[in-house]
Amino acid sequence: MITDLKLTANELRKKILFTAHYNKQGHVGGSLSCADILTALFFNQLSIDPSNPKWEDRDRFVLSKGHTALALYATLALKGYIPEEELKTFDQYGSRLQAHPDMTRLDALDMSTGSLGQGLSAAVGIAIGAKRLKKDFHVYCLIGDGESQEGQIWEAANIAEKYNLDNLIVLLDQNGLQQYGWKNETNRKSPELRGKKKFESFGFDTWEVDGHCMADIVGALTEAKGQLNGLPKAIVMNTVKGKGVSFMENNYLWHSKAPNDEEYQQALIEMEGAIK
Known about the structure:
By secondary structure, the protein is an alpha/beta fold. Helices cover 42% and strands 11% of the residues. It has one domain: Rossmann fold. The chain has ten helices and five strands. Helix 6 (151-162) links the parallel strand 2 and strand 3.
């Protein structure tokens, strides 16, 4: 199973790069950093049905870091929600695949996102609704470490604890880089204010794993989903921006940049080598 998921994650990275190269745009770095997380979710954890995207009892997924829609669309294509050919329309006028997720255009989306810091609030609302309606589905929300510097993230976290949302699982893609290479100096100097310890201080059950180790990701997701103890969940995924392509890794210049023909071919060579 883990081997199959690793192969799928590799294919997902190829789709991400293809889409960005073909359309000459897209947030590549953060899309590559969350590829393993999305693979584990959509191909192992989520209770979903691509043939019935609005199934009432499905698990919900909110991509709070909506600028990495590139990764989500590539995942939906691999999962069978949309034709892979449709990836060629990414961010085009009239396309269902806009630069940020738009649930009014695509049934496979559970929330429109893009304004950073707001996705977790939406996920909390969905989780509260599930509790009120006595539904058993889980709500997963993928957030970025950059947007976690915004107060709304922590206001939402506070509400999650208040309403005992053990059906909410927050996934933090902690790749350590932002658009211009900025790092949160306060968090760097004060590790108690970062990731796992901060979520713990808000009353969450927390885990911290290597966000590129598929076995660890699956293990943490499985454990989090199984603990219905009245506490919301948070899994901190330590990742590498641009993961899988040597010249993109830990390089903030690839936050929002499409590879040219030469860079794309080099990246594909590295992708092929990754599965041998």
